[in-house]
Amino acid sequence: MASTASGLWYPDGATPMSVIQIVKAAQESVGPRTPYPVANVTARAAYITALAALTPPVVPSTSNPVRVWRADGIAGGQLEVTTDGATWSQETYFVTGDVITPGYIAGYRDPTTSPGQPLRISRSNGIAYAEGQFENSSSITPTVNGQFQFGQLPAGWRPQFTVTRPGLVNIAGVGFGVTSIRVQATGAVSWQAYASGGPYAAGAISIAVGQISWPIYS
After folding, report:
1. What share of the chain in percent tops pLDDT 70?
2. Which phi and psi (to 5°) does residue 25 adopt?
3. Whole-prediction pTM value?
4. Phi/psi at 123 (nearest 5 deg)?
5. Rounded to whole angstroms, what are the CA distances from 21 to 4, 7, 99?
């Protein structure tokens, strides 16, 4: 069997083959260029093994990449490609324009008592971006260096490991201070108090998040 510049096999007249063998070989050469559906990484590895067992074998390379659609991959990032059979990467990822709230838990909300852009999170090419402002919606008593969860991110927006980014907090009657925003692999999002005090009524604590980002893992 001979092959085209793009790797598609075709009869060359020199190798005796039946019609069935010719059709089968042509289908197999097209296969790696069409995303093959797999359930998980185990099935993905089995697919590579099956390709290697073909005659002639299909070996992933930069000129002959193999693609799969992994069902348990990150939403929007299921299409994967490999050039060596071992290392995989998302060939396409999230659609630019995806925007969500931080998934406020009880006690927090978008700003209402002071003007500010509501905290929103977007994602593009495997990176999440957060920017905006939020406030407490019920009484709270901060403690020095205390971590206070205010949101819960859904799957497809979370980092692999905990990331910490800077923020600015304004407490009524106290003033401005530096805080940190912590995003955990579980999806929990929290802010860190820089001083003790309170209790502070709803809307008394306002936290501004500059444009921060983190790589999405799950």
Report:
1. 78
2. -65, -40
3. 0.59
4. -145, 145
5. 18, 17, 50
